Amino acid sequence: MQQIMTAVSAQKTSFHARAAATTVADVMRPSETTVNQHDHVAAAAYLMKHAGTTALMVVDAQTGQPAGLITEAEVAHAIADGRDVNNTWVDAVMTTRPAVTATTSIRETATIMTTRHFRHLPVAGDAGLLGVVDIIDVCQALIGAAEG
């Protein structure tokens, strides 16, 4: 389990500043807490609770690239299916490879999110995980573009 705390605080950008957002890079924020594929689902649930989030980015421990994401819904499904979350690895229940890049358009990101029912997406780059974008960020950017 790896917890990454960035030196840059996850500052909220004002709604008006997001009005000009056209790519994921304009609205993404740091992914402060991550897990890797071989952490237990119970550890991921613990980190979600204490980070105050409903999803964690799953990072490949060897490459630093996003491997997927795990959400509270996937944790709940694992429990409902009778899995022992203390003995089930994250990679057994996570959504694999849903990442976008920093240059992905807001509209394309919205399409991916609505088609695949995602509320969060990892943002990947050559150096690995760059951050995360969520449905609120995308909706605010689209509303801003429609009003602008």
Termini Cα gap: 43 Å
Number of strands: 8
Which radius of gyration do the C-alpha atoms yield? 15 Å
Q: If helices are DSSP runs of H or I spanning 4 or more residues, what is the number of helices?
A: 5
* Spatial order of the strands forming the largest sheet: 1-2-3-4-5
Structural category is alpha/beta
Topology as H/E string? Answer: EHEHEEHEEHEEH
| Biggest sheet overview | 5 strands, mixed
Query: Which spans of ≥5 residues are poorly predicted at pLDDT below 50?
Result: 1-19
How would you sum up the global shape? globular
Strands, helices and their partners?
Layout: E1 2-3, H1 15-18, E2 33-36, H2 41-51, E3 55-59, E4 66-71, H3 72-80, E5 95-96, E6 100-101, H4 106-116, E7 120-125, E8 128-134, H5 135-147
Parallel strand pairs: 2-3, 6-7
Antiparallel strand pairs: 1-2, 3-4, 4-5, 7-8
Helix pairs in contact: 4-5
Please give a quick description of this structure.
With 148 residues, this protein is of the alpha/beta class.
Descriptive notes:
The protein is of the alpha/beta class. The chain is 32% helix and 23% strand. It is built from five helices and eight strands. It has a five-stranded mixed sheet. It has a three-stranded mixed sheet with strand order 6-7-8. Helix 4 packs across helix 5. The chain is globular and about 50 Å long. The protein starts with a strand and ends with a helix. The N terminus is likely disordered.
